[in-house]
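INFO  loader      accepted 1 record
INFO  loader      residues=158
INFO  predictor   begin
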Amino acid sequence: MRRRLVLPLLALAICVSGVIPSSAATVNVTISNFRYCQGNQCLPIDFVYVRNPTGNGFIHQNALAATLIFRDVVHPGDTIVWTYKDSLCDAIAGCPGHAVCFENGTPEGDCGDRVTPARAGPVTVSWTVPANAGGLIRYFCNVNGHYNFGMTGALLVK
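INFO  predictor   done
INFO  writer      dumping tokens
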């Protein structure tokens, strides 16, 4: 009888103490119509902010899009996957594609290798939220000033 009681109590103690780590999630973001969104096709309202071209902050926050985008909060360890599905950019001969650049106080931002070329199919780029991240992380497309057309997004890290 004691043995049957010990294992369930041990499992309960581990769960209550928080020793069992939660698994990291994957958050999928679509790149479409010169926007970033969580649906399959982005709408004109799917921009988070109007970017200051100098990289020193934002000019205007889009309250409606922010409400929609922030409904899914991300956590340290989560992986964000951006998938290029922009038929609008593909249809414009001079559109080279898009990038995912994090705001860092400079005009170009920090893009790393997060570039999705046009006319190459559904290319994906990903990024894992660092363990020390928190708050709002804004990102934008710096290719040909696409952020001027509303190509901005944000992650709310908690």
